[in-house]
Amino acid sequence: MLISIDSAVPNREIRGIRGIRETRGPRLGRALSLLANMVIFPICSSSAWSAYFAVPAVANRASRSSVSHTTIVLWLASAMFISKAGDVFSAESAARSTEREKPRYETREQHDRDGIGKFYMGREISHVMGHLGADWLERPEREEEEQPNLLVKLLKLKPGDAAADIGAGTGYFTRRMAKEVGAAGTIYAVDIQEEMLDLLAKKMAELEITNFKLVLGTENDPKLPPDTLDLVLLVDVYHEFEFPFEMLDAICRSLKTGGRVAFVEYRLEDPSVPIKRLHKMSEAQVKKEAASLPLEWIETIRDLPRQHVIVFRKTKDEN
Ligand SMILES: C[S@@+](CC[C@H](N)C(=O)[O-])C[C@H]1O[C@@H](n2cnc3c(N)ncnc32)[C@H](O)[C@@H]1O
Hints:
Number of helices: 11
Number of strands: 12
Radius of gyration: 26 Å
Order of helices and strands: EHHHHEEEHHHEHEHEEHEEHEE
Helix content: 40-55%
Largest sheet: 9 strands, mixed
CATH class of the largest domain: Alpha Beta
Mean pLDDT: 80
Bound molecules: S-adenosylmethionine
Distance between the termini: 35 Å
CATH topology of the largest domain: Rossmann fold
CATH architecture of the largest domain: 3-Layer(aba) Sandwich
Number of domains: 2
């Protein structure tokens, strides 16, 4: 039942596409600037100057008066506007490219025992929950503590949607999502532990659920097909990603434009939530980490007892 999306979408091919995207923005900006500086400016300037100054020498008064002061000012202003827009576009795209290239992670010797000593934007990344803890994910009291059915309703999935449950574990949410999208929809259940996917597949077989695909991801790549998903769900997993930037980047590529990603994390802001610090995340930190990707915050849902659901929409990727 384990599918290899790798064969359909070779990783190298995705990197190739990204290579082109990374340079497109700055190039377009530079092209706009060049267009303004090398073509529009000279044409406007020369026609403006010749109309204003040279024409009297070679033509009659009627042709001189056909080019008014206003026309000249408008020509020059539009050329300057295009030039400026090109510069701004170029600068923004270059900043995003730089963001992709700069060293992102820091390792510290002194760190929390629940973390791996690797930090991203000031936050220590936690250990991955091992498959031996799978029973904890299926504990009966979880229904009351986390209200999983309410959470899935809040996601507003539609019949026929394609969605992914990344860090699916035993499939506690995969099976609930599969019900929402119906037979015409698909849920991609992604995990890096094969043992978790085995448990998930067993449970799905017992429940006779078939509208899902198992995907064995890696620490930096969920191995999902590009431009396919309406929603990516991340329950209690983002804080465990060893490569959060690379994972989010890949998630963005797998989403359709306008598709959503929902981070479900235990609320760090709420001291009454009885979970270890590194397994909680604040809304501000999630927003900070999402900001370097083509994601626009839509809403933060606070209806659950212990977690917040921070939802972003994929904007058109300018890079
Ligand atoms: C705490 S469990 C949560 C499981 C499930 N979301 C739930 O709430 O029941 C986190 C899961 O994420 C998986 N995981 C960690 N890093 C991952 C990554 N980079 N890609 C996919 N899965 C990952 C772990 O193997 C583990 O099964």
